[in-house]
Amino acid sequence: DADVTQTPRNRITKTGKRIMLECSQTKGHDRMYWYRQDPGLGLRLIYYSFDVKDINKGEISDGYSVSRQAQAKFSLSLESAIPNQTALYFCATAYTSGGADTQYFGPGTRLTVL
Amino acid sequence: SQQGEEDPQALSIQEGENATMNCSYKTSINNLQWYRQNSGRGLVHLILIRSNEREKHSGRLRVTLDTSKKSSSLLITASRAADTASYFCATDHTGFQKLVFGTGTRLLVSP
Q1: Which of B98, B103, B106 should one mutate to test binding to chain A, selecting the residue with the greatest count of A CBs within 10 A?
Q2: Cβ atoms A105, B43 nearer than 8 A
Q3: Distance, CA of A1 to CA of B89 (rounded, Å)
Q4: How confident is the model at residue B3, as a pLDDT?
């Protein structure tokens, strides 16, 4: 079984709808991240969490919210989806070894907002 | 933005050739990492090099880091068709505790 799972894998929705993307991990890592990927722009950080009680905004948090329900679960919500939120969304976990984080990525959720 | 830039944006080579891609960044780092992404899939960590290291090897991968020039290079030797993917550098800037990803290099290795 995959260590980092994301549901759904694909989603098509309409402008104005509320959408939740879910991420679960079995790696036992404390750190979790949400990124979006757009063609030619690489990955941009939306939110990150270093433990259950710690939530931090990333580079592009406007229009998004998150919930860290447990160490293993980190959900991303789009309160009112808009077309420019159409992108590939990745969840990642990380552990720190010797002061360096290595990240492990889920398979991604392809979201289309019409 | 602290986002790194990678060069070239795309690279096309034949199997057996070496592939070199470069990454430049703007502010001091704690470490730099390279990740690989097969089309539309999650990224996979390849190798990490710390700011006090200059070169690191892992199998057919060789990474160099020049902190004075704020740049790194990834060399894949004896490339294979299976190496076809996008490659991203990611920088861990001192004190930020999170990675900043570059824009990626798309590598195509033809049989």
Answers
A1: B98
A2: yes
A3: 27
A4: 67
Q: What pLDDT, on the 0 to 100 scale, is given for residue B1?
A: 54
What per-residue confidence (pLDDT) applies to A96?
A: 76
Interval B59-93: pLDDT, tens: 999 999 999 999 999 999 999 999 999 999 999 88
CB contact, 8 Å: B99 with chain A?
A: yes
CB A51 within 8 A of CB A71: yes
pLDDT value of residue A1: 55
Q: Which stretches in chain A have pLDDT values below 50?
A: none
Question: H or E stretch including A108?
Answer: none
In order, the DSSP letters of chain B are ----EEE-SEEEEETTS-EEEEEE-SS-EEEEEEEEE-TTS-EEEEEEEETT-SEEEETTEEEEEETTTTEEEEEE-S--GGG-EEEEEEEEETTT-SEEE---EEEEEE-
B103 touching A (Cβ < 8 Å): yes
B-facing residues of A in 50-109 (CB < 8 A) are 50, 58-59, 88, 90, 92, 99-108
Of A44, A108, A110, Cβ closest to residue B42? A108
